[in-house]
Amino acid sequence: MHRRIKTFKSIVTNYKAVFFDAFGVLKNHQGLIPGIVKTFEFLDRKGIKYYILTNDSSRSPEMLAKWYQDRGVWQVTSDKILSSGMLAMEYFKVKVANGNAVAYLGTENSAHYIETAGLKTVAVKDIDLNDLGHIESFAFLDDEGFNWNEDINKTINLLRKKNMTVVVANTDINYPVSQNEISVAVGSLANMVEKIIGKMFIRFGKPDAQMFLLAFERALLDINVKRNEILMVGDTLYTDIIGGNKFGLDTVLVLSGNTLPDMALIRISSSGIIPTYICESAVIE
Amino acid sequence: MHRRIKTFKSIVTNYKAVFFDAFGVLKNHQGLIPGIVKTFEFLDRKGIKYYILTNDSSRSPEMLAKWYQDRGVWQVTSDKILSSGMLAMEYFKVKVANGNAVAYLGTENSAHYIETAGLKTVAVKDIDLNDLGHIESFAFLDDEGFNWNEDINKTINLLRKKNMTVVVANTDINYPVSQNEISVAVGSLANMVEKIIGKMFIRFGKPDAQMFLLAFERALLDINVKRNEILMVGDTLYTDIIGGNKFGLDTVLVLSGNTLPDMALIRISSSGIIPTYICESAVIE
Amino acid sequence: MHRRIKTFKSIVTNYKAVFFDAFGVLKNHQGLIPGIVKTFEFLDRKGIKYYILTNDSSRSPEMLAKWYQDRGVWQVTSDKILSSGMLAMEYFKVKVANGNAVAYLGTENSAHYIETAGLKTVAVKDIDLNDLGHIESFAFLDDEGFNWNEDINKTINLLRKKNMTVVVANTDINYPVSQNEISVAVGSLANMVEKIIGKMFIRFGKPDAQMFLLAFERALLDINVKRNEILMVGDTLYTDIIGGNKFGLDTVLVLSGNTLPDMALIRISSSGIIPTYICESAVIE
Amino acid sequence: MHRRIKTFKSIVTNYKAVFFDAFGVLKNHQGLIPGIVKTFEFLDRKGIKYYILTNDSSRSPEMLAKWYQDRGVWQVTSDKILSSGMLAMEYFKVKVANGNAVAYLGTENSAHYIETAGLKTVAVKDIDLNDLGHIESFAFLDDEGFNWNEDINKTINLLRKKNMTVVVANTDINYPVSQNEISVAVGSLANMVEKIIGKMFIRFGKPDAQMFLLAFERALLDINVKRNEILMVGDTLYTDIIGGNKFGLDTVLVLSGNTLPDMALIRISSSGIIPTYICESAVIE
User: Fold this and answer.
1) C273 neighbors C264 (Cβ within 8 angstroms)
2) Cβ–Cβ contact C131 with D under 8 A
3) Spatial separation of the C-alpha atoms in residues C211 and C91, rounded to whole Å
4) Which of A41, B123, C224, C250 is exposed most, by the fewest CB atoms within 10 A?
């Protein structure tokens, strides 16, 4: 392990591809991390491929990419984005029988993406608990877009009434909404429901191997690459770094997000999750 | 252990006092358990004392007692009721400095009870996050009376901003609202918040010894009694029975509530929680 | 909350009684905390009562007291010591039928104490799994005195074969054995077994209210005292301080044990467990 | 979902490849499941590929294969076996610097396999806690081959002294040793140590996607196959079935092992883990 603090530029040139976490690495609550566009320009010049792995099931890869493009980072196209929502959609595509519906908690946007795969969806608030014949699966998609008081209780009684597979399309337990404030993420709501009904849900998202596999398979469409030729860049030890380490990638912890500079070494030591490198940020000047 | 199924009448006459759980023993979602008034008449005739131990912080003992009296059970007076909300109130009375306030999630009723002890309360929705000087403690009182979407997120940011003791005044994770439907209880909301902010809350309610101690101290005001002369009657292995066993009481599992007749022996065997007796119900004909 | 760092002497004189944790407060791996005898002399002069609350089921109160007396602290007599082992013994005395036996993991010393109450015990290694008729309860007493490889596996199969109440007489998950080394405590072994067999054990020890109740009842034999006239002194937020707070006692965190001076405020802030006071140690010069 | 009970033969012919769990499907505590050799003969005749996925890090694929061959199932060669131990070995091969050592708990056999990859290993009992410079990683390999009392405590102090990545090469918490008896698996020992030291370990084994990925990549060397053309066959809902479902495979729950016939539907309903099919066994007459 080489835990010296190095520049991101000196590290990244040793790899064929980079996997980026989004929040805390490329963007934060104020918008793009300043200067991050130069990182993509540099990677393009060097012929290093890049992909973004994000625990997000609130919108489609196209919508996620548009956010970057609206801010001048035209390099981030939808094919560069791998989200936990994509894993959920793949799951439903294979597992839900034709004509049946996926019940969900989330926004209309989050459901729309699943519908692009030809599946039917139905919001919890629109479900009739006495007519569940066509509902085959359940998805926790987003913490917004529904009334928690009413629809969480309705979800619990729905899942007690009919046994079905439940998918949690974003495992995060919270997310930042401003410099100092956070919000409950849909992963926490799912954990609460799971404990109350005593069943076991299927979860998609980092640190689970399936997110890294999705990105790895995408990279293989572009280049011939081995796992140890890929660099995972993230700001969170418990998702990005442990997940990357376990999948056989080298890892960089950046200090531009969740893990603050003065706490980085303490957190590494107390967690036992050891990144290959530590960098101030992923910005290449 | 005497796990034979006996009549409640033949058991209870061997004790000086009875501790009753409320829901599933004395009442259910439809109202009083039919015939339960005769149980109180019998106990009065025999001079056996009775107390009700309930994980409830949604209203005062007076209001809880009124429910029984409105239904003709005049024996249940407020001095017979010991609730987890009383433990919370006692805690705040001792620990919150004069003039400071307890922030809460719950109904106005649930807060009113704390105010009868001379304490100030403030609902989360009325808190200014930039003016927390007078707020000294936090209470999870009830799952109703507030907007979950807004006020749970506000609670999280309040507790991140100012370090204070957090009290969960009802540890139940759900409660029945009809024959087949349940609702999230405030204990589940507290568990979710606790996990997100990573702090440790103080919980009051069965199976914790403090509930049994509260009832035992109340009983000692009425009679001279030892713990093994008290019978705990409940419908839930995980709260009533294990709590009673641990406190040194003999215990009766009744089959009129949570634990259904055909599952009782399987649940006892799989949980390892062994009541002294099993009865159909606490009704004495 | 008064979190100023004060001298222990200036605090303790405001109380009628003191509850001490043992390890990290009165003693450490090297022996007595230097100067602690003067604290007992001071308390005697002022007429302040003192009791020691310890998560220890490895030996009797008499043997625990002898340790202090052998080191010149004659003030610590067995009636001043309240151990989690005493709660276990009380439980068995009430709950185990005459003639039946308690199976145990631990040393012979730890079992001997239970036998002084007239109960039979049998070490796991001496049990015949085909002849369990006389075994009625199980106790985790100590991490020493048995072969972990053989006897933990035998315990699991014993508890799968016969349903019985299981008591964990010390909830600690580890304990210090030298300046830098710790050892697995019996509480961790019990947690592992509980998870494998899926049953629910009864646990005795701080922070549970029953330990504080035991000490409170003992204190009431000596003096007329209310809970808010008692000071709990401990070195561990997660057992001594949260337990004392919840029971309605004022609490002192001392920095002579588990919680190091430079980490105390960070730990209080990150745990949300707030002592009434912080002191360097419980020594009174 | 097609939860009708069908014959394994009628199901398997719809797939290009089969993933088998070992214990409870192909073998049990008495040896081979009677008649299972005919299943392999049938699959060979039909040109259906097969692979065995096992949470086992106690020995090499060669040794695991030899067990089948010794019993006349010459079809199970080492290239058909994918074990959690292989994932651990791959991890160490990429992550441990040349010349450094992996400390381990387990048998010599379990360590020998890691050494075949050119790595050094050192048993916990042979470690000098004052000379850890060359030790870079830690592996939980097997529950046998060491003294639990001494070496688990030594492991805890080793991991407190030097921060390193810890790999748990078998996530199972117990395993059967006879008709009615089970034994603690190394996954339980790892869970206990992880909780005591408060760090986060890396785990390999079903239900984690990485085990299914390993087998899928192996299958792709033999045939061109998509995930929904593969059938996962297992006896345990919590590892085989939920893992297979999540990876996008169709799944068969067999009733020849962990999940008994009369409990299958109850367990499916109470867990929410729903296999595509249920079969008596994987035997094809």
Assistant:
1) no
2) no
3) 13
4) C224
A85-203 has the same fold as A8-55+207-279: yes
- Do the beta carbons of residue D137 and residue D167 sit within 8 Å? yes
**Min distance B204 CA to chain A CA atoms (Å):** 19
Residue of B nearest to A183 (CA): B153
What is the spatial distance between Cα A225 and Cα D261, in angstroms, rounded to a whole number? 47
CA angle A56, A62, A66 (to 5 degrees): 95
Residue B56 corresponds to which amino acid?
D
The reported pLDDT for the residue numbered A256 is 87
The CATH code that applies to domain B85-203 is: 3.40.50.1000
Nearest to A266 by CA among B158, B38, B229, D198: D198
Instruction: Answer yes or no: do D148 and C153 touch at CB < 8 A.
Output: no
Sign of torsion, CA C72 C74 C77 C80? negative
Q: Which residue of B has its CA nearest to C216?
A: B213
| Nearest CB to C213; choose among B97, B213, B238 | B213
Residue A202 forms contact with B (CB below 8 Å): no
Mutate to test the interface with A, among B125, B140, B149, B162 (most CBs of A within 10 A): B149
Domain coordinates of chain D in residue numbers? 8-55+207-279, 85-203
Distance CA(C71)–CA(C27), nearest Å, equals 11
Q: What is the pLDDT of residues C64-83, one digit of tens each?
A: 999 999 999 999 999 999 99
Q: Given pLDDT bands bounded at 50, 70 and 90, which one contains residue B285?
A: confident
The whole-angstrom separation of Cα B121 and Cα B88 is 13
8 Å CB contact of B94 and C227: yes
Give A8-55+207-279's CATH code, choosing from 3.30.70.20, 3.40.50.1000, 3.90.400.10, 3.90.245.10: 3.40.50.1000
Q: Report the percentage of chain A scoring pLDDT > 90.
A: 87
Strand pairing partners for C268?
Answer: none
Q: Are B8 and B283 in contact (CB under 8 A)?
A: yes
Q: Which chains touch D (3 or more CB pairs under 8 A)?
A: A, C
Instruction: Collapse the DSSP code of A188 into the 3-class scheme (helix H, G, I; strand E, B; otherwise coil) and give the result.
Output: helix
Q: How far apart are CA B183 and CA B203, in angstroms?
A: 20
DSSP code of residue D86: H
Q: Is C271 exposed, middle or buried (0-12, 13-18, 19+ CB in 10 A)?
A: middle
Residue C8 and residue C43: Cα distance in Å, rounded? 11
Chain A neighbours (≥3 Cβ pairs under 8 A) are B, D
- pLDDT surpasses 80 at B3: no
A173 in B contact zone (CB under 8 Å): yes
| Inter-chain CB proximity A198 and D270 less than 8 Å | yes
Instruction: List Cα–Cα distances, D17 to C210, D1, D254, D257, in angstroms.
Output: 58, 20, 17, 22
Give mean pLDDT, residues D168-178: 93
User: Per DSSP, which regions of chain A are E strands?
Assistant: 17-21, 27-28, 31-32, 49-54, 81-83, 101-105, 120-123, 135-140, 165-168, 174-176, 182-184, 202-203, 230-234, 250-254, 277-279
| DSSP code for A67 | H
* Residue the block writes with tokens 């239900």: D207
Across chain A, what does the average pLDDT equal?
94
Q: What is the ipTM of this complex?
A: 0.94
Q: For residue C156, which residues of chain D lie inside 8 Å, CB to CB? A: 174, 182-184
Q: Burial code of A74-104, b = ≥16 C-beta within 10 A, e = fewer?
A: ebbeeebbbbbbbbbbbbbeebbeeebbbbb
CA angle A96, A100, A101 (to 5 degrees): 90
Burial D136-173 (b: 16+ CB within 10 A, else e): bbbbbbbbebbebbebbbbbbbbbbeebbbbbbbbbbb
